[in-house]
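Hey all, sorry for the wall of text incoming. These are the two entities for the joint prediction.
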Amino acid sequence: MVRIAWIALIVATFGAASWVGARLQPQPAERSAPTGVLNQQARRALEAGDYAKVVALLANVSNNDGAAAESHLLSGIAHWKLNRWERAERAWHEALRIDPTVPEAGWRLLHVFFVMQRNREAEQLVFDLHPIEPDRQDRVRLLLELVRQEFERLGPAATAMIVEPVVATEPANYHALRVLGISYVMLDRAPEGLDLIERAIEQRPDEPDGWFNLVWALTERGDTNRLSTVWPRLPPEVLDDPRFLRPRSAWAHAMGEHNEAEQALQKALAKDPWDRKAHYQMARLLRDRSAAEATKHELRVRQIDDARERLADCYVRASQQGDDPSPQLCQEFADACRALGRMRLADSWQREQSERAELSPHAGLSSGGSMR
Amino acid sequence: MSPSVRAIGVALVLPLTAAGGLAAGWLYGQLRPTGPPEPAVGPIVTPPRPASQPANRDRRSLPREAVAPVGARPEFEDVAAPLQVSFQYSRGETGEFWLPETMGGGVAWLDYDADGRQDLFFVQGCQLPRDESPPHDVLYRSQPEGAWSVVPAWAAPSDPNYGMGAAVADLNNDGFDDIYITNFGRHTLYINRGDGSFVEQAAESGLNCSLWGTSAAWGDLDRDGDLELFVANYVTPDPKIMCTDPVTGRRKYCGPDYYDGQPNVLFENMGDGRFTDRTLESGARRTDGKGLGVVIADLVHADGWPDVFVANDLRPNFLFANTTPRTVGADDSPGTRSIRLEEVGFESGVAVNGEGVREANMGIACADYDDSGSLDLYVTHYYMEHDTLWQNNPDGFVDVTRRVGLSLPTLNQLSWGTNFLDFDNDGWLDLFVTSGHINNIPGSNESYAMRPQLFCNRGAAEKRFEEVSLTAGQYFQDRYVGRGSAAADYDNDGDVDMAVTHHHRPAALLENRTQTPNRAIGLKLLGCCSNRSSLGARVVVTVRTDSGDRRMMRELVGGGSYLSADSRVMLVGVGPHDRTAAVQIQWSSGETTTLADVATGGYWVVGERGAIRRFEPFATTPAKQ
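and here's what came out:
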């Protein structure tokens, strides 16, 4: 249910955003009230849809107050409703810094990461929150959310609908610019999309995500001429990111630079031995030279695919078990994650398995039961 | 039915105008060897130059210089309604969300009465789980003028099962096209009696299959002169499993990942009207596929032995390389050669896309799009998975989708039927794709009805495809829930037309009205040592250009598209050339026929070992009103 509610949040983020203006100014009479009282007033304003008032009420809350974490949470929600996602994100991070167990803030950040395709940050956040989340059910839901984000991605049309107002409100929002750009590219609006991605790169030229989006878009477009102008622009430190090594290899291969193509893939696989796409590219590269080596890489592709399929199946079964997976199913999650090289996630599932097996020692003996 | 009533019916179905067609059947009887093989035809046959070599209608008035040979504006018009082709697929839609309701029905071109004009067969659905008065499949008989007629149900293939696809070939080599129909349930085989009627003979022929069949393909896998049948089967749906949309909470159709796949089936033609299931011993049995599309063509090594490619939904595709022993022992006759297939999808590079990602593979187009002399594969995919074009190289297949500009325009589509077709006869094969979603969820960002697409192949200079849908006529401006598609020059005017099936709307019959100075050469191949349908025959048309000889290879492949069957009549665009330097036909038997200095502008009827039988100029006036 929680996951469904979160998906519903995705579609509930439109509108509500154009008339902030002077209402954001803090109101002196309310500034002096205790934080708890301000939070209550802010909650009422939030329910009434008066997001500017929420922001104004909580603008000067002291972080030394015990209720400050909730203030930042509420302030973040108001900013989010106003399509000011960068400020929302900062507020929720602040809330978690003050109190890592503050309800909702982590989930709201996960939502932002989901929409903005920031998978690594989502994973890191889950690993931070999972050990300290007091509620047993919510703990496992954090792990399930990571899996969900992997298998239930937002389509470009939905992403564009969500992110367009954000870009309108925050024209310099790096992640919003690049995600909207990539959505436009996927919706066959490549010129507009590429323009937005370039704007994102201007904002943060040292960050790899925007560059990766640009390389991806040009590769999908088959625009090798423009792609060849991008490589020299890339900051040297991002060149070793596996996400660049693969397209770099494909580009080199297309240019007849087979050695460079192979070296790039070797580097990618050294960094991530479970990179399915790199394995497949390597298999294709080696096929005419060494069938045996190519077959080894193809085998890895199949093993990784099988593991992904098992993970997806586990997720469906967990949903059928009301997001309360049996110890057996937790074990299967852990096994699938391990086969995918996602050791930290596997360890988290293993801990879940142990705890659940302790709570119901006989449950581990029963089969999880496949939906098929 | 009494014989007299039946005779009247036959008379209605097959009026005198079909006499010429029956003559073609007779002609084949003359060509087919009954005793020792005929001596091979001479190496070069120079056909007579016909008195007139008309270009397509309306084209002669165009000054040639005024229209660039490449870049003609495509123009298609839906003429189904004026021709009274009013078929609409009945998907059932009980509200119980039976998965077959999403799949659509196929369309097939065939010349069932052998009159030289392509007729049109539509596969029909019905209500699930049972329908007390199901609609049946429909066969339209094309007319040289005016409305097309529906062949009466008692004479036509009129399968009342929940229909999926159709595969057409002359499987008994009698000169008349037969039809195999895949169903959600028992499949059927309709043998063409040659008198204008069909008889269902699946069980008698040994073609027993009750799995959920989708596409099927005919091909002479053991090259013994008769055609094997390969059937792609899909999944075993479980009505107990229900799926809901995560955003709206509304019930929706489940994807194939919720169900177990069903194995494909290979039937060997025993040459006596019976078929034997050879799935297991041939190596074709795989339980890890969910087949939607299938094509039989010489894809591996160009060795003259047809291979089998199966497009699997959400599973790696299969490429079954034909490893049937090339020689037979002294005691063996060709008919006892054991078919052997070896699955080499991964090794060949077509199991998954160029990034190693397995996709929801749907329909297949198979042809040599780049004049390399090898057959390439184009496979349609699910929403947010771009279609994939695999270029066939000497060291395997390479995903060139991005390179040729087909990635982004197809990413936002959920596509099914697809065909290589040369709409402007410039010799470069263009692409047609029909699309439409599975689920119609109000408020969803994923459109249910989608635009059909036409991509123009810009040829060797640019090596890219450009979408030209928006300028291709009214049909391409609208959105449909498209499924099957099949190509044919139904009006014999020398350009390729299309038939497309949809959910919720009548099928379209798209007449090609592209104005271009380009010309074409048509080939109606009549096998004798090879199968009568000439499936597997490879044709190389050579034309002289300023920059040297240009060679265009075409193969009559079995299967292809989605649930559908293209015409087996070959049409090769040759640009502005009045004559071709040579036409070489490599028959599936291994025989070769070479024709030199051949006129374009019409259909050549060519028999294996018998050289050219006759020339039929393209129609110069509209065949319909």
